[in-house]
Specification:
By secondary structure, this protein is of the alpha/beta class. It contains six helices and 13 strands. Bound molecules: ribulose-5-phosphate.
């Protein structure tokens, strides 16, 4: 019998623990990241603490007795561990299903190695089947929605407020052929905080949970 999606998520979260040596760890958001946080709790004496990509991640880290640092007080983060909604063989990711995309992208940008932990349902040939989240300043919501429609998408307002006090437009109907280009293009729209394409800074290591075990992919 195959493993459940939760078992696959736990498997990759445990595999990511092998990369944790010392210092301060960047920690993502979502159900897969939660398995990682729980595993990190078991080895918390090895590390100094963590930088969190959301309030919910910070709360969970603290519940395990892991110190959470403000990113501005930290110089170097060796590894950032996070899930994704979709990832390709080029390590381009679509993220933000949990709404934490902006803080995730900021912590990832400050980290040397991005380790993506996913179950195999997230591994796709082309990004875009999962609606692309775009974080937007509330006053710009209608304008940005019209601009996203011009790019061929169908934006839908999510009933959600981000940790930064903004709204999210989930863009349906995109087939993303050039994720690096589209990431830049959407970020140029006035009022956009950031979008859920993580292509300019892709993952460096992918730990993919499959029923045959964890597969490891690396990109330099
Ligand atoms: C949150 C994210 C998550 O990494 C993404 O949504 C995957 O979540 P899960 O591990 O629960 O499937 O980008 O903003």
């Amino acid at each position: 019998m195959g493993l459940t999606q939760d078992q696959l998520k736990k498997q990759v979260a445990d595999a990511a623990i092998e990369y944790v040596k010392s210092g301060i760890i960047g920690v993502g958001t979502g159900s897969t990241a939660n398995f990682f946080i729980d595993a990190l709790g078991e080895i918390k004496n090895k590390i100094e603490g963590a930088v969190a990509s959301s309030k919910s991640t910070a709360d969970r880290l603290e519940a395990h007795g892991i110190e959470v640092f403000d990113l501005n007080s930290v110089n170097n983060i060796d590894i950032y561990v996070d899930g994704a909604d979709e990832i390709t063989e080029h390590m381009h990711m679509l993220k933000g299903g949990g709404g934490a995309l902006t803080r995730e992208k900021i912590v990832a940008a400050n980290s040397k190695t991005f380790i993506c932990i996913c179950d195999e349902t997230k591994y796709v040939p082309t990004l875009g089947k999962f609606p692309l989240p775009v974080e937007v300043l509330p006053m710009a919501r209608s304008y940005v929605a019209r601009e996203l429609t011009k790019l061929g998408g169908q934006p839908q307002l999510r009933d959600f407020t981000t940790d930064n006090g903004n709204v999210i437009l989930d863009v349906h109907g995109l087939t993303i052929k050039d994720p690096i280009e589209l990431e830049a293009q959407i970020n140029q729209i006035v009022g956009v905080v950031t979008n859920g394409l993580f292509a300019k800074r892709p993952a460096n290591i992918l730990l993919l949970g499959t029923s045959d075990g964890v597969k490891t992919y690396a990109k330099n």
